[in-house]
Give the backbone structure.
Amino acid sequence: MSSRGSQSRRSNASATPVVPRSTLRERLEPFGGLTTVTVIVAAVVFLAFIAWQARPRSVSTADLKGVEVAIAAATHTTNVAELIIPEGDPPVGGPHFPVPLRAGTYADPVQDGNVIHSLEHGMIWISYNRDLLPAAEIQKLEAIQGAHSRDVVLSPRPENTSPISVASWGRLLKLDTVNTQAINDFIEVNRDRSPEPGVR
């Protein structure tokens, strides 16, 4: 009898002890567990970020900056020959390609037809002629684009006769050197004053 009792005690002693689950895991179990809750939280944070990026902003009512340029109607085309490109200057409106160009700094020239569509959405295009602008000045333009990363396209454009051209829908500012204040004012005042403002 004592032999059976000692065997029973040995059997109980060798059994794996029950470790209680953490309180946090128990609370999350009805919601699908820690992994599911983590994925849901990450998705909510991501959607909140997207909503913040797309938040409506006030549009300036100040007089538009730059020189007014006459432009044709805003129509879509896939034919380069239908674009209206002024000699020596970037276009500021008119017929354009169906796909807009995203804001950003581009190392190579971009398609005029795509950027015109971006201008229609209220964006600003800073283009420059590499042959007429020192590298240090280009770096200043890159800093300006970075400060307005949602709204500005920056790219070289060898056809430009001015070192720097800043364009919005129907407006153009030409500069020989970087005037940070003038460019920032142009961006703040002219941004989103276009046929389809705020689309990004």
Summary: The chain has a mean pLDDT of 87.
